[in-house]
Amino acid sequence: MQRKLVKLYKSMNTTIITTEEKSFIESLKQIVRAARRMAYTAIDYAQIQSNWLIGQRVVEQMQKGAERAEYGAHVIKIASDALTEEFGSGYSETNIRNFRTFYLTFNDLQIQQTPSAKSQMPIQQTLSDELEPTCKPIGQTLPARLSWSHYERLMRVDDEVARKWYMREASEQMWSVRTLNRNINTQYYERLLMSQIKEPVIQEMQEKTAEFQHDKLEFIKNPTVLEFLGIAQNKSYQEKDLEQAILNNLSEFLMEMGKGFAFVARQQLIRTEAEDYYIDLVFYNYILKCFLLVDLKTSRITHQDVGQMDMYVRMYDQLKRTEGDNPTIGLILCSETSEDMARYSVMHDNERLFQAKYLTFLPTVEQLREEIELQKSVFRSQQGE
């Protein structure tokens, strides 16, 4: 009896969807599926594309029922219900409205074609290509280095000229989200316009946002996805094999590392009076103005690894770092991180030693979310939170 009542309740509360609306829902699902097939190294990029295209389709669908005010809410609801059922969280009605606002606010990004059910020839290059072969790639017009969080903040700038200026500056100057937020809140654009001598205003902004721009965590990805190395999950390999694979795919590795990194050396020799030491990989970050030492481990991180990297960082500062360079950072790139190392080793409360997990396969979005949350927990332990 109870099951019948539940079934009856569900049938009474089922939203009626027309055949045309089913086609609309399928086009939304196609957008998300295409975005999720894109490389993790472009996950922010894919998310922005997906959100814009969803917003575009929602606007188009709403226009079909423009004579009915309640139809807009209906479109938002069926889009949210369908995408949440198939893809999980991230597609609440509030988010769907945000995607609609995103499209309306940035409708000149020239992602020109709407995803079409007619598309029969997916091309594995860009999301737009995958959805519509004749679509102009979004990458020709979308500013680089901006995340969805950047756009969420930019959408709240009412003045279109100011908004485009902030978008361009944030991209070209590589502003963090915190820097962008502060500059908008302090009316940086307006103050520059009113100033005959702009250098003091620019200098003040750079000084006030320096700590936001030089947050080391924004420059260290954890987890780091290295599926482009071509290492099979079930294949055994040594650290030298991992190192060689990275060097063979150096440009992709630098892209995965993030902004501002340049390759310096492999197996760099550090010579003391007592012994010779070799550091796996050395990079320099021109934004942080410091060296990054990378130690590769094909196993779970150990206290010996942490102690060794701590010594390498100290030695590098004394023997290699030059005037004008900030203190060296050490990164242990391993197959498994450890909360114990974060909590109880010299890594604890240390702003110069980090651990990061690498993945040799492309995870699903859900796997990625879980891994990111796990690594956040490890970092919080390191910070003593």
* Mean pLDDT score: 77
Going by helix content, strand content and strand pairing, the class is alpha/beta
Strand order of the largest sheet: 1-6-5-4-3-2
Q: Count of DSSP E strands?
A: 6
Count of DSSP helices? 17
Known CATH architecture of the largest domain? 3-Layer(aba) Sandwich
Largest sheet: 6 strands, mixed
Overall number of structural domains: 3
Strand content: 5-15%
CATH topology of the largest domain: Trna Endonuclease, Chain: A, domain 1
Quick overview of this protein structure:
This protein is α/β, with parallel strands linked by helices. The protein folds into 3 domains: 2-140; 148-213, no CATH class; 218-382, Trna Endonuclease, Chain: A, domain 1, CATH 3.40.1350.
Structural commentary:
The protein is α/β, with parallel strands linked by helices and 385 residues long. It has 3 domains: 2-140; 148-213, no CATH class; 218-382, Trna Endonuclease, Chain: A, domain 1. The protein is 51% helix and 11% strand. The chain contains 17 helices and 6 strands. Strands 1-6-5-4-3-2 form a 6-stranded mixed β-sheet, sandwiched between helices.
Give a topology summary.
Blueprint: H1 2-12, H2 19-36, H3 43-63, H4 69-87, H5 93-105, H6 127-131, H7 148-154, H8 160-172, H9 177-185, H10 188-194, H11 199-208, H12 210-213, E1 224-225, H13 239-248, H14 250-257, E2 261-271, E3 276-285, E4 290-296, H15 303-319, E5 329-334, H16 339-344, E6 353-359, H17 365-382
Parallel strand pairs: 1-6, 4-5, 5-6
Antiparallel strand pairs: 2-3, 3-4
Helix pairs in contact: 2-3, 2-4, 3-4, 3-5, 4-5
